Amino acid sequence: MFFKLKPLSSTFINIFNSMNVSSLSVAKKLKFPRKMGGCSHIFKIAVMGSLLQALMFSGAHAEEGGGLTSEIQKASYGVGVKYGEGLKRDLEDLDLNAFVQGLQQAFKGQPLSLNEEEITQAVTAYQQRKVAERRSLHMEEAKKNLMAGKAFLEENSKKDGVKVTDSGLQYMVMKQGAGETPSDTDRVKVHYHGTLIDGTVFDSSIDRGEPIVFPVNGVIAGWTEALKMMKVGDQWKLFIPADLAYGEHGTRGTIGPNAALIFEVELLEIPAEG
Q1: I need a labelling partner for 36 at 20 to 30 A (CA). Which of 2, 177, 229, 241 fits?
Q2: 203 flagged as catalytic
Q3: Could you give the CA distance from residue 70 to residue 23 in angstroms, rounded to a whole number?
Q4: Is 220 a catalytic site residue?
Q5: Does residue 208 share a domain with residue 265?
Q6: Buried b vs exposed e over 211-223: b needs ≥16 C-beta within 10 Å?
Q7: Per-residue pLDDT tens digits for 210-238
Q8: Domain ends where: 57, 83, 114?
């Protein structure tokens, strides 16, 4: 969780690969959720066909959990589950009945209830609204986290034993070692325990019982700065401002935008190259 990440886009996964949607290619244009990545275009279409077979089962069979006896039925059901998980995550207000209606009409080549222009307009408007909503929520969370982080770090800097660098990184030496200090080009072996300022644990090699090896310059700025001051055998507690961690983007997991982070870090070794 402390590795560098590329900035995350505030947009969500589009329903279509492109907005140039023809009346007979809607099913082919649909994207699979992230967990289904790596499928070829032809495979996507084939699996969508299996999904349609699952959707056309009778309501009674679906409710009772019956009808799933053949290989294609079970595979279709499995694809439906995975697809549904992705839709629930990315399109939480999806009208499932209307979705199934459009899916069936397109797959069977039936007349569509909406024409191409209406579909494009509706999907575009929906996308724009959801992007605006998520951007607004993101900005609110970022502002809240930034204020909380600044207040926490200001109070924390007054505690005995806490040192503050020019960058704003705060650290406390918990145990002193006598080994070498790594450079930018070194790899290091460490144990760590990472939490938010409210104590929420988001990652811990200590909990996993297995230290990790990584390049000094391959992690967030707060880590890189601290590691180049530590000696093998040192155990430090780091208090990292958002701009030295994941900044305004945060991560897809527990770490929100502009979140300050706390790490307990033990520098175990500077492994030899090779």
Answers
A1: 2
A2: yes
A3: 31
A4: yes
A5: yes
A6: eeeeebbebbbbb
A7: 999 999 999 999 999 999 999 999 999 99
A8: 114
